[in-house]
Amino acid sequence: MSHSNRWIVKVLAVAMMILVVASGGCRKKDDRPTVALVMKSLANEFFKTMEEGARAHHAEHKDQYNLEVRGIKDETDVTQQIAYVELMMAQGVDAIVIAPADSKALVAVCKKAMDAGIVVVNIDNKFDDEVLRDKKVRIPFVGPDNRKGARLAGVYLATRLNPGDKVAIIEGAPNAYNGIQRKAGFEDAMIGSSMNIAASQTGYWETDKAQPIASALINEHPDLKALLCANDSMALGAVAALRDAGKSDDIYVVGFDNIAAVQRLLKEGRILCTVDQHADKLALYGIQYALDILAGKATPADKETPVDLVTAEML
After folding, report:
1. What is the per-residue burial (b if ≥16 Cβ within 10 Å, else e) of 23-60?
2. Which of 3, 151, 153, 193 has its CA 20 to 30 A from that of 307?
3. Which residue intervals define the domain Periplasmic binding protein in the entry (predicted)?
């Protein structure tokens, strides 16, 4: 390289250093913590509402924190949800607020995040207590008492039935704590009201999976009086099955989540009741709690959030 070319290279290098230093000096360091909201299926209206609530809260509090949002494509894509937690760790977020697709399978990766210094808050679907003990980790749960909510709906249904009437339960995913608790709440109410639980099968939270199950239950039990569904997506499948069977007026449908599509069906009398766990606020409770922990204003502990019965008369 000639002397003149070397001189030009040196000048350019110095100029680049000046630009880098100047830009760094002008840029204000972002001290806001970053919170990642990792949800279940965004195909479920409940989680879309949760996302909208979180984004609205962030829009009003942008000066307090940054927000990252991730959601899987279907309710059972546990592998993808684990990958999202790993991604958030790699991006260096300060807190992860997670509605786990599986109450057991997500514990290990969340412990890994906590070991890396990330605050983890569990919302919506509680982690399995036995797995938490086995992993020697405490992750605070911020969410409703799902058993109590399902029991509210079941007790309301019982006012429309007679002792001994046949009912069936369409459950959530088998490894989801909230699904297990909702089934238990339905059972509490039905057994306590002397109803006959003729069958209980999982619909894995999804409309398309619940519809054929509801159809089979209707055919197997022609004297069935009610279908208690562990979420509203599955209640939509039950409504479709009843419509196809010409039994929309003969069998009650109970849901859980209070999504917009079900509110319309409540008004039409095609769904008897649902349960509102306030999806638009549920993520906010978790995000605010994570921010409080980061700021040293709170120590990790479970916090129960509201759950309410919703009927057509309440809309």
Report:
1. eeeeeeeeeebbbbbbbbbbbbbbbbbbbebbeebbee
2. 193
3. 35-297
Q: For the chain of 315 residues, list the mean pLDDT of each consecutive stretch of 10.
A: 45 39 45 96 93 96 97 93 98 98 97 98 97 96 97 98 98 95 98 98 97 98 98 98 97 97 96 96 95 92 95 92
Closest CA to 143 of 277, 300, 291, 280: 277
Token look-up 């906010």 returns 284
- Burial letters for 196-210: b for 16+ Cβ neighbours within 10 Å, e otherwise? bebbbebbbbbbebb
User: Which of 196, 234, 205, 200 is closest to 217 using CA atoms?
Assistant: 200
> What was the pLDDT predicted at 315?
86
pTM for the model: 0.86
pLDDT at position 298: 85
| pLDDT score recorded for residue 20 | 38
- Give the CA-trace dihedral at 46, 47, 53, 56, to 10 degrees: -140
CA dist 62 and 91 (Å) reads 19
Among candidates 114, 83, 119, 89, which has minimal Cα distance to 101? 83
Q: Which two tokens stand for residue 294?
A: 């980061």
